[in-house]
Amino acid sequence: MTAPEPSAESAPDPRGGDAAALVDAEVMAELVAMRASIDNIDATLVYLLAERFKATQRVGHLKAAHQLPAGDPQRERNQIARLKHLAAEAQLDPEFAEKFLNFIIDEVIRHHQAISAAGGPAQVGRNDPKNQQSQNTRTNGRTSERAHERAHEQTTDHSR
């Protein structure tokens, strides 16, 4: 014999999280509605990133076919400057935007290097001495994925 499933009315909304035990139903309803909006934005970000990576994969194949380096420090600097400006206009911390973009760029270059390794000669990437100085200048000493996570943790107070 199985236990009856909880009704929709009695099952707590998972978006309520730990706050459900701390606030009244009206505040919880408002919080859940706000978090539903955030969840939708997060889903949109995931799909946008997927589309971005599909485009950068095509770039990686083109670079590999023409023996171009995986990294393009000048393009990266231009993109960072452009997106920091956009971030400021959008009232998003430009330094956070830079960290986020650096995280994406690192992943894109890793993909480009893998594409190149699978289909052609090794390519010059961020870890090549030719690119090391510009990478150090651009990343301001960022050394790990954890740096991105810390940046995200510092900004999450605005999203919850």
TrEMBL record:
**What Gene3D superfamilies would the database entry show?**
Chorismate mutase
GO molecular function terms listed in the Swiss-Prot or TrEMBL record: chorismate mutase activity
Q: Where does the record place Polar residues bias?
A: 130-142
* Primary enzyme class: isomerase
User: Residues annotated as region Disordered?
Assistant: 119-160
Q: Which SMART domains match?
A: CM_2
Q: Write down the InterPro entries for this protein, in alphabetical order.
A: Chorismate_II_sf, Chorismate_mutase-related, CM_bact, CM_dom_sf, CM_II_prokaryot
Q: Where is each Chorismate mutase domain found?
A: 25-116
- Reported EC number(s) for this entry are 5.4.99.5
Keywords for the protein's UniProt record, in alphabetical order: Isomerase
Renumbered to this chain, the Basic and acidic residues biased-composition regions fall at 143-160
| Protein name, per record | Chorismate mutase
What is the organism of origin for this protein?
Nesterenkonia aerolata
Q: What is the lineage of its organism?
A: Bacteria, Bacillati, Actinomycetota, Actinomycetes, Micrococcales
